[in-house]
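Shipment paperwork, digital attachment
Item: protein structure file
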Amino acid sequence: MVAARTSSLVTPLVQQQTELNAQQSTLSKVKTTFSNLLTSTQKFTDANFGVSKDIFSSNTVSSSDSNKVSATVTNSTPRQTISLEVLKLATATKVTSANSVSAPIDENTMVSAIASGSVKEGTMSFYVGDKRYAIDVSTEDTLGDIAQKMKDAAVDENGSTLINVDFVDGKFSLSAIDGTAVRVGANSDTSNLVNALALSVQEDGSVSSSYSIGSLDLNKPLVSVDSGFYTYNEAGEKVPSITQGTFTIGGAEITITETTTMNELISRINTSSTANATAFFDSVQNKIVITSKQEGAFNVNIEGGTSNITDVLGLTRNGNIIPETQVLGQNAEVKLNGSLIQSYSNTITSEVSGVAGLTIDLKDVTEEGKSVNIVVGQDTDAIVKQVEELITNLNTLLTTSQSATAAGADLQYDSSINSLRSDIRTSLTTAVAGSDVYKTLASIGITTGDVGTSVDADTNTFKIDKEKLTEALKSDPEAVKRLLIGDSEKGVTGLVENLQDIVEGALDVESGFFKNRETTISSQLSNLSSRIESKTAQVERYQEQLEKKFQAMETQIAQLQSQQSQMSSILS
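Attachment content:
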């Protein structure tokens, strides 16, 4: 009885609610296709708000030799062909220490302090005449230890050494006492000490370092003698030559602490956003090299501070730059359409070239008398891509709305949606009054089917002939633009503008179709919700009444059964 009452009072309302929810969901999907289409139309009509937003002003640029010159452009760049000769590339200023920066090696230098601590432990061979001798190399050894090991290894039958080992001006020298030729190194060696000391054979048959070797350990604190930056005090003791404090490079203030190493210092410079320079330590020359990140004839700003490190590194004298240590970069020189232009950088901006929106990147000099052509033209591919996006969103709207209003669909036979769809198709298939070269979408390759298409074919959507559209854009881009977005000066309204008006009207947040329909459905759902709640309460009261009646009936039946039982007992 309750189920029957629910079926007659509540179920029809719930079915209506379900149908309205389905309508609301489908309406939302249709609305989304309108919104997507509106976005596509705005990418065309935004041209009315200036060149920067004008898709028809989109440019492309090409170089006849991209290995020499490349370029980028903006919508504001005039379409033209530019002739460019690259006479010079800009280079950056390089600063090199005025002198070897760390103390030269001597017998007290640790093996670990040579070649930035990269010496490997192992065996090292040397020859006196044709006889080979070998020693073991440990990073705990001093060079004096190495010299003694070599002397102890190469002895005659009387136990006298055959060689001399000397340290002069940072060079390790090895010679035979009797003048016999000596050699160092063998392919069986496991230590690289020979390379670390840059040992080579001299004309007199001795072996010596090719250049002065510094005793620098890039991983030891700069303010310690272990780093290799030290001098000797009056007592002959090593004392650090670098002090803690600050110095400036570029616009960055760098701090030297008690733990700062040369590797850390170089890393700080290279990762600084304001130093505007890169640094590395040349262990061959025993000098630090700093290169400006900015090309052109500019000094690298280096200033001493509370630390004396820039003086010790030979970059400054009394805290001020040493001009002869800075090899200034050069400016780039180009001939642009025959006019000589100089640039501090290999990236030539519009401010230098005088061509709006053009940025030129120089990569290599051109051959004398030869030039590279930079061609700025319309980006036809970008326009075609936007047209494809527009048509894709248009077709999605047409097919989605048609499916939504078909027989048996959630919005079947919805006259308003059908009317909107019809208006959209009509707006795109009519001729544009006042347009001269191209008057219809078909004239630029956009149709609902080729001429002679079967009546059974799908003509509800639009198709693009990309070749025809591209040809139209190349032939007369202004005429295509006029067809699509009109020309206010000539009083011409374009097809996309007409389409946008229809879509915007439907999406109007105050009085548009979707707003009105959504309001109506929401109101109906709210009303149904109240009615369902009311009818459900009515059924619940009905159930309570029935339960009371059946409970009373069951009580009466129980009483009658009890009386019957008593009567039967009396009669028996």
